[in-house]
Design brief:
Structural class: alpha+beta
Largest sheet: 4 strands, antiparallel
Distance between the termini: 75 Å
């Protein structure tokens, strides 16, 4: 009868729900599988759902799952030391971005894929700061904050870095980022990268006369180069970062420091020039 068919259908739906509940991954087994495999909770739950909440079978299922294998490979790589790496800079007319990514070997640090990643993320960092209000102080970001930077393909810096780990076969760490949005009518940013990104420096100068912008830009680049060559002694300057740079001897101009160099350019151009901020990074600072 019609009523009997309806009752049978209802009973089948109830039995199906009961079976689903009986094989649903339990929280205890999810936690245990995560402890054993170190894989994400979502992936552990999926494995247990597929194997009727059986931990041993779930482990075997994960071994055959492509996503799980990739995650396992990354987990193994992530514990390895990253002593090499690269720092990349990207400059825009009113902004600059700097990114440091570390890896295990110098071979990978010079790899085209790795170099392309650092350059691309430095550009994304510069674009991020270009949208901010101008200032004269560099903003340094930790790995977590740097990881949220949006890439050109609408991904994140953290995911872009993680994605190359398995293809390169080394631990790759997005270490930090830095940037500045500045007013190009009153500020100039000097930059210098040494030895394929082993060291990098940024300097922001402020001036009241942009008619001699080329000379002031050259000055900013010279100061950045010397900041990289001879790390300013901030401790000796009682913590005064600007004083530490002003006292810095110029490596390529004997008997002259940064303060004298600025004074000389001021005499030539008639522009008042001040050092507003600076940053110096080394790839070994992880």
């Amino acid at each position: 009868s019609l009523g009997g068919s309806h009752a049978e259908m209802m009973m089948m739906q109830v039995l199906q729900c009961v079976r689903q509940m009986a094989t649903k991954a339990s929280m205890g087994n999810i936690k245990e599988l995560r402890r054993v495999t170190q894989l994400p909770m979502k992936l552990c739950k999926q494995a247990l759902d597929e194997t009727k909440d059986d931990v041993d079978n779930a482990i075997e299922w994960l071994k055959e799952n492509e996503e799980a294998r990739a995650q396992l490979a990354k987990s193994k790589l992530a514990s390895r030391h990253v002593g090499e790496g690269r720092i990349s800079l990207f400059s825009l007319p009113s902004a600059v971005g700097m990114i440091q990514i570390n890896c295990e070997t110098d071979f990978v640090a010079r790899n085209d894929v790795f170099v392309g990643l650092t350059d691309s993320l430095a550009k994304s960092c510069a674009n991020l700061f270009a949208a901010k209000a101008p200032t004269t102080s560099f903003v340094e970001m930790d790995a977590e904050t740097t990881g949220t930077i949006e890439t050109e393909d609408k991904n994140t810096a953290a995911l872009a870095t993680s994605a190359i780990m398995t293809s390169i076969g080394e631990n790759v760490k997005l270490t930090r980022g830095c940037g500045l949005s500045f007013d190009p009518t009153t500020s100039v940013v000097g930059s210098y990268v040494h030895n394929n990104g082993a060291f990098a420096g940024l300097v922001c100068l402020k001036t009241d006369n942009m008619e001699s912008r080329e000379k002031i830009q050259q000055l900013a680049d010279v100061i950045a180069k010397n900041v990289v060559a001879v790390a300013p002694d901030v401790t000796g300057a009682d913590g005064d970062r600007i004083a530490a740079v002003m006292d810095l001897d110029l490596v390529f101009e004997p008997n002259k420091n940064v303060a004298k160099k600025i004074k000389g350019v001021t005499f030539q151009t008639g522009a008042n020039i001040t050092v507003e901020s600076w940053v110096r990074w080394a790839k070994t600072e992880v």
